[in-house]
Amino acid sequence: MSLDPGLADQAGVPSTRRRAEEMERWRRRSRRIAIYRKALPWTMLAIVVAVVGWVGARAVLSVRQASQPGSSELRMTNPKFYGRDEQGRSFQLTAKEAARNSGETNQVTLVAPGMQLGVGGENPIAVGGGRGVYREDSKVLTVDGGVRMQDARGTVLTSPKAVVDTQAGVVRGQNGITGEAPLGQVSASAYAISEGGDRLVFSGGVRSRIVQP
User: Fold this and answer.
1) Which residues make Cβ contacts (< 8 Å) with residue 91, sequence separation at least 6?
2) Distance CA 175, CA 188 (A)
3) For each of the chain's 213 residues, which pLDDT tens digit applies?
4) Rounded to two decimals, what is the model's pTM?
5) Closest Cα to residue 85, out of 129, 42, 37, 118?
6) What's the rounded Cα separation, in Å, for the pair 201 and 167?
7) How far apart are CA 100 and CA 145, in angstroms?
8) Does the CA dihedral 121-125-126-131 come out positive or negative?
9) N or C, which end of the chain is more exposed by having fewer CB within 10 Å?
10) d(CA 132, CA 147)
11) How do the domains of the chain map onto residue ranges?
12) Domain 73-210: homologous superfamily in CATH
């Protein structure tokens, strides 16, 4: 029995084509593997560099933040401070917000401070403003931003700035003052309020208007 050569060629074509296709797929797979083998070390190196760079950047940012003023502030909302002056009279300091910097532990920056002198006495004095700085070492409060002072007898004074010595129980200012009292109006360049509000001293261009009862 003999095989027709024409049929033999036709039967061998599919087998040869499959081998060629399999060889081509093997070559493509080999090329991809070779590329992956070359790329893997570089990819790992890039990942290491990125991680090291991120850690370094975080360290630099931390150092910069630590060196910036106010970066380590301790903030308080609606704080209250209590104390007594040299005469044993009570005072109370409140604010909308307070901030203490770790670099200056004796200084407290205040938003909308309010000082009450002579709390519980016959004529307590209230001093308030937009901003303030309280020094815990000297017990002195500096207030500015529309300062308003008022006592229990109806005296209302306004000034751009006031310095409150809580130990001496004295309120002073050198930036001008205007106000009204039951006896009339007054304006001056400087002032001092002491003795629990019983003593008011005005100086520098004093002008007053007395109202007869």
Assistant:
1) 82, 83, 84, 85, 115, 116, 117, 118, 119, 166, 169
2) 9
3) 444 444 444 445 557 777 777 777 777 777 777 776 776 777 777 787 777 666 666 655 555 555 455 456 788 899 998 888 888 889 999 999 999 887 788 899 999 999 999 888 888 899 999 999 999 899 999 999 999 999 888 899 999 999 999 999 899 999 999 999 888 899 999 999 988 888 889 999 999 888 766
4) 0.64
5) 118
6) 19
7) 20
8) negative
9) N
10) 10
11) 1-68, 73-210
12) Lipopolysaccharide (LPS) transport protein A like domain (2.60.450.10)
Write out the two tokens for 153.
């007898």
